[in-house]
Inverse folding.
């Protein structure tokens, strides 16, 4: 039951994301495959021996992920601004390129946060059942 709760939370987050992201940017059917990838990653992560076992641990992971994402975005902005000083920082971040550029940041950080948020809800259910 705990995994089902985590998967429902993940589905809700993906639906919310699909509602916010314009279909001109990301085709709506693609979110189904995003959900499948997040579900597989979530189940693997939730059952890992190294994962937190309580909701507060998962929430700390969310916070850490957001901070790490902000650092990655800042690094993308600095690198992009060095190469394109005429652009705004956000536009420069999108132009930073490289293997750890803006695209990777914009995919990895929300995925990490979604799995950790669903893990927190799942963990809350597990703890409340004891």
């Amino acid at each position: 039951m705990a995994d089902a709760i985590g998967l429902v939370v993940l589905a809700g987050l993906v639906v919310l994301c699909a509602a916010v992201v314009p279909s001109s940017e990301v085709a709506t059917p693609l979110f189904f495959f995003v959900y499948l990838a997040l579900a597989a990653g979530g189940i693997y992560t939730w059952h890992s021996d190294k994962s937190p076992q309580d909701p507060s641990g998962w929430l700390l992971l969310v916070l850490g992920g957001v901070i790490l994402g902000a650092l990655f975005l800042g690094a993308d902005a600095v690198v992009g601004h060095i190469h394109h000083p005429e652009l705004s920082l956000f536009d420069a971040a999108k132009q930073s390129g490289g293997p750890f550029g803006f695209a990777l940041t914009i995919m990895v950080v929300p995925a990490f946060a979604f799995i950790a948020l669903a893990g927190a809800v799942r963990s809350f259910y597990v703890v409340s059942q004891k």
